[in-house]
């Protein structure tokens, strides 16, 4: 688990120290306050905290790889690490990821550095591979991103590594008939079923390296092998959960709604083990509400809460009042739900960014998000009463 992050003189940040919940963290703030930069910083540091045995080469090679990863994740205009140092800063840049075991992974550099310097506590717990889900959906782009006939340099000019890394995870083999894996891990059974029910089907990997949408849903079906077993005396002992297609021709992923594709991404990552609560690394999701029908947001929040209850640490960045309010309404202290809100603000006088952290939803009442919705409500009431509109 990640306990927190410290940032000094990095991109838009002068200095931040953010404690993270082991369950769900929600980053809020106006445009330009660095929400996506914060998610990307945590992502890059979580990759840096991978065990040394997972990276081939010397410590110098690891520093070089991390330097390249930061450049590929942030894509600064100048392809040099010094360009990621905050403008006008008097000191060097420093990023520090704190583990739940009180150890740290620190990256530092200055404006003239050719690479970063990585310091990793020898006692540090091995963080599992993080997952970053960017604002735009990736499912329909996997085929193009992964096609060996496409010029890699051109692909990398179009997409930063948060997109390319996710495409690689989505292309990893998964269980196309999920019955066996769902039976082994009942925690995922309900979550996977809910995701498929939300969109009325699933996205399946095709032989040409892309995804197609197959309408259908999960049903309990008899398992011939288990039904013949003498030990299978109870109904639930002789049935398995299987996806049942509604028939008809599947649709290419690009012909389905983008919001559905975003849910399909989460389904695929659960089905191929890239997300496995309690085992895999932190999940970072930038604006999960983007292009999502507001009617689906409640169910998405329920899925995220269920993942966190099973040990998945999650960080979200959002502008959406509906998403925030559903977290407030659906949070269940009896199930040990824990949500920590982090509000990023820009000081009008100094133009510096600050963060306010709270475990109380009332923090939202001080943000532009709630102010905007309150203004909208007031205008609606004024019109209904025949008052002047502004």
TrEMBL record:
This is AAA domain-containing protein. InterPro entries: AAA+_ATPase, ATPase_AAA_core, Bact_Antivir_Def_Nuclease, P-loop_NTPase, Rad50/SbcC_AAA. GO terms for biological process: double-strand break repair. Transmembrane segments: none annotated. One of its GO terms (molecular function) is ATP binding. PANTHER family: ATP/GTP PHOSPHATASE, EXCINUCLEASE ATPASE SUBUNIT. Pfam families: AAA_21 (PF13304), AAA_23 (PF13476). The lineage of its organism: Bacteria, Pseudomonadati, Pseudomonadota, Alphaproteobacteria, Sphingomonadales. Residues 21-337 form the AAA+ ATPase domain.
């Amino acid at each position: 688990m990640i306990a927190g992050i410290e940032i000094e003189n990095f991109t838009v940040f002068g200095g931040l120290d953010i404690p993270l919940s082991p369950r769900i963290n929600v980053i809020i703030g106006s445009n330009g306050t660095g929400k996506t930069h914060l998610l990307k910083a945590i992502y890059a540091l979580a990759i840096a905290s991978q065990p040394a045995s997972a990276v081939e080469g010397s410590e110098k090679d690891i520093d070089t790889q991390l330097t390249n990863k930061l450049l590929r994740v942030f894509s600064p205009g100048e392809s040099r690490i010094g360009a990621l140092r905050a403008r006008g800063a008097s000191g060097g840049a420093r990023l520090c990821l704190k583990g739940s075991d009180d150890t740290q992974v620190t990256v530092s550099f200055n404006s003239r550095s050719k690479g970063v310097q990585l310091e990793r506590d020898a006692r540090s717990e091995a963080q599992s591979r993080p997952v970053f889900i960017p604002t735009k959906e990736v499912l329909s782009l996997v085929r193009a991103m992964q096609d060996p006939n496409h010029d890699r340099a051109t692909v990398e000019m179009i997409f930063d590594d948060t997109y390319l890394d996710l495409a690689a995870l989505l292309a990893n083999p998964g269980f196309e008939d999920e019955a066996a894996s769902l039976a082994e891990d009942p925690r995922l059974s309900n979550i996977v079923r809910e995701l498929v029910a939300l969109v009325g089907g699933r996205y399946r990997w095709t032989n040409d390296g892309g995804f197609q949408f197959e309408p259908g849903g999960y049903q309990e079906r008899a398992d011939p092998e288990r039904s013949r077993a003498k030990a299978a005396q109870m109904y639930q002992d002789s049935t398995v959960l299987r996806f049942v297609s509604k028939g008809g021709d599947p649709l290419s992923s690009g012909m389905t709604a983008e919001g559905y594709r975003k849910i399909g991404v989460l389904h695929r990552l659960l089905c191929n083990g890239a997300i496995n609560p309690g085992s895999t690394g932190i999940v970072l999701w930038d604006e999960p509400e983007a292009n999502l029908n507001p009617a689906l947001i409640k169910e998405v929040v329920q899925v995220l809460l269920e993942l966190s209850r099973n040990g998945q640490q999650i960080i979200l960045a959002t502008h959406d009042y509906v998403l925030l309010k559903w977290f407030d309404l659906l949070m269940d202290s009896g199930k040990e739900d824990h949500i920590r809100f982090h509000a990023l603000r820009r000081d009008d006088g100094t133009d510096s960014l600050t963060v306010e952290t709270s475990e109380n939803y009332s923090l939202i009442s001080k943000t532009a998000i709630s102010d905007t919705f309150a203004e909208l409500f007031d205008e609606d009431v004024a019109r209904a009463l025949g008052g002047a509109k502004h």
